[in-house]
Design goal:
The chain has a single domain, classed as Rossmann fold. The chain has a 6-stranded mixed sheet with strand order 2-3-1-4-5-6, with helices on both faces. It is an alpha/beta fold. The chain is built from 6 helices and 6 strands. The structure holds guanosine-5'-triphosphate. The site of guanosine-5'-triphosphate has 23 residues, from α1.
Length: about 210
């Protein structure tokens, strides 16, 4: 397993994001482009799982993003499944020139439902948008699938870097928003509990001071 990191000593949050999708759709290439702005020309199938780190600044917060690149090959599914539940965000990738990779998103969605946390933030990624002359999956099909599952949707290219940093930024921002909403809810709930306790205490004081 290799690790590459931007030099970072301090950050506000650590988020774990996972890339999944069929073998060859371009997950490793997307990650290489995002992390080090390089293109991965050859398809060297990922063995098991790999991860890379990048620090993003979103809404004034420094976020350390740990991105897990999972192998698309069937034989690694049992191994990669355990990483799903640790992820707060998932990028589900297909290749616009490969219809099978689009159809197989149904299997990946099942894998996500079975293994990830219930409130995981997801985005559907249609990669290889630069080779639209070989396109087999329309933008409308991608958008519709994303809508059906309540996911965001973007067409990207690891080759030209189109929408690549946007994909990671939007997903990270969604995780951040969700986390802050959860935090706000917890604050309101604990405030309600304190109020309840206060009114219970004042009721019992009144009762105990009653002379009758
Ligand atoms: P596994 O590790 O087997 O799961 O594959 P992967 O999804 O990580 O695919 P990988 O990134 O290795 O890319 C497979 C092939 O597609 C490589 O030859 C890449 O150069 C090519 N590729 C990836 N992304 C793009 C893209 O956006 N445009 C074009 N034209 N080629 C791409």
């Amino acid at each position: 397993m290799s690790v590459s990191a931007t030099v970072s000593t301090s950050y506000d949050y650590l988020f774990k994001v996972l890339l999944c999708g069929d073998s060859g759709v371009g997950k490793t290439s997307m990650l290489c482009r995002f992390i080090s702005d390089e293109m991965n020309d050859a398809h060297i199938a990922t063995v098991g799982i790999d991860f890379k780190i990048k620090v993003l600044e979103i809404k004034g917060k420094k976020i350390k993003l740990q991105v897990w690149d999972t192998a698309g090959q069937e034989r690694f599914k049992a191994l990669t499944a355990q990483y799903y539940r640790k992820a707060q965000g998932i990028l589900l990738v297909y290749d616009i020139t490969n219809e099978k990779s689009f159809e197989n998103t149904a299997n990946w969605l099942r894998m996500i439902q079975e293994n990830a946390i219930s409130d995981v933030k997801m985005m559907l990624i249609a990669n290889k948008a630069d080779i639209s002359k070989n396109r087999k999956v329309t933008t409308h099909q991608g958008k519709q699938l994303a809508k059906d599952y309540g996911m965001d949707f973007l067409e990207t290219s690891a080759l030209t870097a189109e929408n690549l940093s946007e994909a990671f930024s939007i997903l990270t921002e969604n995780i951040l928003k969700h986390m802050q909403n959860q935090f706000d809810k917890e604050v309101v709930n604990s405030q309600l509990s304190i109020n309840k306790l206060d009114s219970y205490e004042s009721d019992s004081k009144q009762e105990s001071s009653c002379s009758c």
